[in-house]
Request: fold
Amino acid sequence: MEEIQKQEPVLLECEKLWIFAMLIAAGGYLGAYTYTMRGGVFCNAQTANVVLLSMALGSGQWSRALYFLIPISAYILGAVISELMPNRVKRLNFLRWDTLLVGLEMLVTFLLGFIPDHWPYQICQVSINFICSMQYNTFRQAEHIPMATTFCTNHIRQVGVFLTKWLRHPGEAGHRRRFLVHLLMLGSFAAGGVASAIVCRFLGGKAIWGASLLLLVVFADLAHADRTTERELLSCKPAGH
Reply:
């Protein structure tokens, strides 16, 4: 009797490594942008805001504490929407939610480039909190490897973990591959930050359009896949969901 071979799961375009590398480059770009041009903060994650909220509560600064609830709430809302929308979008059978999200991020960052530099920083900060939350919750695995695309702390940890495993077991190709993949993601995040710091010197607030350009490349590729090679796969869920 012939052995039944286990069928490999379908690898969707939105799960490919280069897509995640582009997205985390955009994340690094936005982090450097908000720090340089929009109030000296990092909007990609919420750890700092929770720490500042706790410090404000501990020192009795109630109004300051209430302020930090705004970006935290925007991040929570982004997660909620990114949980609710995929099934609704799937029923349209036109584009995948992942594709529409990248398009939305591209539009938001493009519009933020028109905000004058003297306007309140919070407009840009909260908007980026919102879209980064949705991106973090939507893009979860690249080629079956769990990933984060808006911050790099986990990638730093994983570089150390899989470097150690690779050195202990040099023959294990999987350890070497994961080490290199996380190193790539870390390098892509840093490259986005470097590019942002350079462009901000010349374009000021409009430098955010660099992130829009990165997102445009991703959106164009995902939209093309949705309407051509993966048109019959729109009902398939990306791994990790």
Observations:
- Residues 1-5 have pLDDT under 50 and may be disordered.
- The CA atoms of residues 53 and 68 lie 6 Å apart.
- The longest helix spans residues 62-92.
- The helical segments are 17-37, 47-58, 62-92, 97-112, 121-138, 153-168, 173-203, 209-227.
